[in-house]
Amino acid sequence: MSCGALLRRFPRLAVSAATATARTALSSRALSTVDFYSGSKPDDVILRREEKPAEITEKYPDVDKLERFGKYVAAILPKYVQDVRITSTQELEILIHPEGIVPVMGMLKDHTNAQFKALMEITATDVPGREYRFELVYCLLSHHYNSRCIVKTYTDELTPVDSLTPIFKSADWGEREVWDMYGVYFAGHPDLRRILTDYGFQGHPQRKDFPLTGFSEVRYDNELARIVYEPVEVAQEFRKFDLDTPWELFPKHREAPEHLIAEGGEGEKKE
């Protein structure tokens, strides 16, 4: 099926055109030539698109179906799908380019052989050492086929990604949560504001470089009869604990037990 025919059959695939310009203007780096997932295979992945060991298919009988569907998706949208994996929990992972979020998710929702109508959750992970530190995770559910699918993509602090609110209404709160916790900006979101922290909160708590103590503390002031925000003050400095016991530090000051003294005499007592 050609791209034009695919867009005519699934009109939602064309909704990213308006946000593509905004992403290009806001982003300082181009992502079009990046294959982020090439050469990486986590420990929990049992099968990739180019692999098919016989022992894996015998141990996991549903792998064949998932593998065929993953290759089918990669064949339909080769421009965006960078890898297809099957984990040890027999879950299909489709790893895509950030620009393919809307086309891939729209196809997975509307295609007859997919029908992933429910977006269960959106989350992210932060690895500061990578060039694109944030990995976005979309969990889909198909009630028709009783199947699940995980779609993953990547971005950084400056590059926004397309919002899925025109396709999945449930993406509204999920994207707000990712924005609140990680600071990932979703272009085209109708109401992108904090959802878990307060409106005046500084920073994004789930980032690895966010301090554990935070920047401000909240308390109730009896004199003002309201809740006040103040900079964090650590009342006591962090102690340095030594795992060695005093007996190990000062062995000469340790006295022998009474029953040993009674058996060996007073001469056995250590000075």
Tell me the radius of gyration: 28 Å
Global geometry: extended
- Uncertain stretches of 5 or more adjacent residues: 11-30
Discrete helix count: 8
Q: How are the strands of the largest sheet arranged?
A: 1-2-3-6-5-4
* Main β sheet profile: 6 strands, mixed
Q: How many DSSP E strands? A: 10
Q: What separation lies between the terminal Cα atoms?
A: 91 Å
Query: Per DSSP, what share of the residues sits in E-state strands of 2 or more residues?
Result: 15-25%
| Helical proportion, percent range | 25-40%
On the 0-100 scale, what is the average pLDDT? 77
Order of helices and strands: HHEHHEEHEEEEHEEEHH
The chain-level structural class is: alpha+beta
Write up what this structure looks like.
There is one protein chain. The protein contains eight helices and ten strands. The chain is α+β, with helices and mostly antiparallel strands. It is extended, with a radius of gyration of 28 Å. Strand 7, helix 6 and strand 8 (186-187) form a beta-alpha-beta unit. The strands form three sheets. The protein has a six-stranded mixed beta sheet. Strands 7-8 form a two-stranded parallel sheet. The protein has a two-stranded antiparallel sheet with strand order 9-10. Helices cover 26% and strands 22% of the residues. The model is unreliable at 11-30 (pLDDT under 50).
Please render the helix and strand layout as text.
Blueprint: H1 3-9, H2 17-26, E1 45-48, H3 54-59, H4 63-76, E2 81-87, E3 92-96, H5 101-110, E4 118-126, E5 134-142, E6 147-155, E7 161-162, H6 171-182, E8 186-187, E9 216-221, E10 226-231, H7 246-249, H8 258-264
Parallel strand pairs: 3-6, 7-8
Antiparallel strand pairs: 1-2, 2-3, 4-5, 5-6, 9-10
